[in-house]
Amino acid sequence: xxxxxxxxxxxxxxxxxxxxxxxxxxxxxxxxxxxxxxxxxxxxxxxxxxxxxxxxxxxxxxxxxxxxxxxxxxxxxxxxxxxxxxxxxxxxxxxxxxxxxxxxxxxxxxxxxxxxxxxxxxxxxxxxxxxxxxxxxxxxxxxxxxxxxxxxxxxxxxxxxxxxxxxxxxxxxxxxxxxxxxxxxxxxxxxxxxxxxxxxxxxxxxxxxxxxxxxxxxxxxxxxxxxxxxxxxxxxxxxxxxxxxxxxxxxxxxxxxxxxxxxxxxxxxxxxxxxxxxxxxxxxxxxxxxxxxxxxxxxxxxxxxxxxxxxxxxxxxxxxxxxxxxxxxxxxxxxxxxxxxxxxxxxxxxxxxxxxxxxxxxxxxxxxxxxxxxxxxxxxxxxxxxxxxxxxxxxxxxxxxxxxxxxxxxxx
Amino acid sequence: xxxxxxxxxxxxxxxxxxxxxxxxxxxxxxxxxxxxxxxxxxxxxxxxxxxxxxxxxxxxxxxxxxxxxxxxxxxxxxxxxxxxxxxxxxxxxxxxxxxxxxxxxxxxxxxxxxxxxxxxxxxxxxxxxxxxxxxxxxxxxxxxxxxxxxxxxxxxxxxxxxxxxxxxxxxxxxxxxxxxxxxxxxxxxxxxxxxxxxxxxxxxxxxxxxxxxxxxxxxxxxxxxxxxxxxxxxxxxxxxxxxxxxxxxxxxxxxxxxxxxxxxxxxxxxxxxxxxxxxxxxxxxxxxxxxxxxxxxxxxxxxxxxxxxxxxxxxxxxxxxxxxxxxxxxxxxxxxxxxxxxxxxxxxxxxxxxxxxxxxxxxxxxxxxxxxxxxxxxxxxxxxxxxxxxxxxxxxxxxxxxxxxxxxxxxx
Lengths: 412, 412
Fold this sequence. Notes:
The structure is a homodimer of 412-residue chains. Chain A has helices at 47-53, 65-69, 104-121, 130-136, 138-145, 152-173, 183-191, 204-210, 215-230, 233-258, 265-274, 284-288, 294-297, 300-320, 322-327, 335-343, 347-375, 379-401. Chain A is mostly helical and 412 residues long. Chain A has a single domain (44-58, 101-401), classed as Farnesyl Diphosphate Synthase (Orthogonal Bundle). In chain A, helix 3 crosses helix 5, helix 5 crosses helix 6 (152-173) and helix 16 (335-343) packs across helix 17 (347-375). The first copy, chain A, is globular and about 60 Å long.
């Protein structure tokens, strides 16, 4: 998973809790935030694209599906001031769309419920990490990304899965006990919490017991059980597939880490298409209370849109977490680091090139989404495309405003 | 993948061809073959189950869909002599269904075409390995598993994919240059031949070029391109998902190999549900020229049937390749070996217990398939269930008759 980790509880890996970090709410609001300083792609900037993306007024106003059906007034959010200035600075030159602040009442309620789930119900985090869990702001993240969720229960589906995905990444792959050694086994056994084992009577109990044996599996199992209460069978199959992709991505990254190998740029981008946010935007319909039919989801044009959107959001993570990852021990691969190494560029030039790669992916995503909306103007397709676009925008908002985790390099 | 490997061509790993092995056709027919000495599960042995499985006369007689619609005469293939005695002995006590010899004309034509594809078109194997390629009998395998394929072209879809899957397993995972080190990277990059990269104009050409750079990727890319000519978008999505599972399974097995770890029996069975034949039976509808709708494929009951069938076929592989794997260097995990180690049983008792595990999986598969057929008697569901069952039987036939690769231990 992209890097926005919080330290989880691992029954098998006890350790002292880290020092608390200030909650995001304590960071002063920076009203000088520049907005979208990049040049929009003229080929992808039509009215249809804006309809897909929705007006910048989405968010608290976009909570009901009916609102999505009203044609939004033409707007150019990429050149307008955001309605509510967010904390943190966006990356200069980054092509993105600002969003209004997510509904504070929803954020508060989701934050309250997710803490209860993570601490008490699924036991993903110990109570003493409460402050840090708050600082992660996963409630704000998911409310920003799913403005059309009909209820808090729907938002909770996405929020639990996001926390579970992070727990697996943290405990198995990254700093909190993770390692490339044995990762293939850990991830597969955790994957059976999503995609169950079908075996004989004798061996089933030990497997079922294993799903409670550490924080990642408890989190996956519980979050998946809630997801299955609302998702259709095809939506569940889609999610399992996307999580299989994610786990393959982790394992490719781990293979390189184990041998200190720095891949070619295209190889890194291929890995990052799998180690990717994709499982998060692709549940937008379940969280929105509707279904993109399986046959439409599987269309190559839709698969391409989803992949491009996922890739853009994931490179956003590489860019915002760049300085944080530079500070961590060893070489942490991200797009600027790989470009610098493989193309012989300075850190600054490599970073700026990575911004361009991101912008290209965003423009491609928007152009392909607009083309698909024209070719297949089915309401669920249009709503799904808009849901993915809103997720992309909410994801950028969360990264930009996470000033307690992320800071920008001094390249401008 | 289960072990039925042939040495492929790797442009990056040249080496002398191995000594030729006798083709299967030279092995004398053993007419004393015992048939299904196990006790059928009384709960799963009803008429409906037999309808699902079809009469033992399937095979050349089952080439046309219309034939499937005729209710077969009640038969007990598990207690009858096979219509055509196969080479090789089945494992005593194994619950299985004999099949008639696959249509020799089809076998001959598929064998001819697959060699042309593998040697000349996709360059998976060098011409000097022709004899060994013939000995693998992949044409006979696929004709046995897909008796309802309407044309040779349909059979070729399955045959190319089977050869490609074996090339990846051989070159990346197993003896022919494979290693657990770096496997996560190799498998992910090969997976992009099935599930394409969506990236920027600058980096796309290097990725496209990579798909021609070794035998596994050439094989995946070409076999997938043919598959996509016939498969629907949802069938392609299903196949990608199953291949993602397969690659996760390879990586779990590699994680254990790297640390010489012998897993618990249930862990081994979980890994084997992923490192599994599953991608082969689940294309039965594409190869049969029809489609199991995505929403029906995703139903939990169907997913369970598919998983149980895949698990039974895969344990068949563990049992038939047992003596071969014992002879290979290092510890090659298979179910008897893991049971012996983890449950403190003798080699013989562990092997016999593994046979029971297989039989339990088969009975569960058949009982669940029969229940699903009752609950959802849609023609495509019934045909798909029968296609999976026929694949299971064809797979057993291929293992039993592969006397040039497999021999039974001396436990009876």
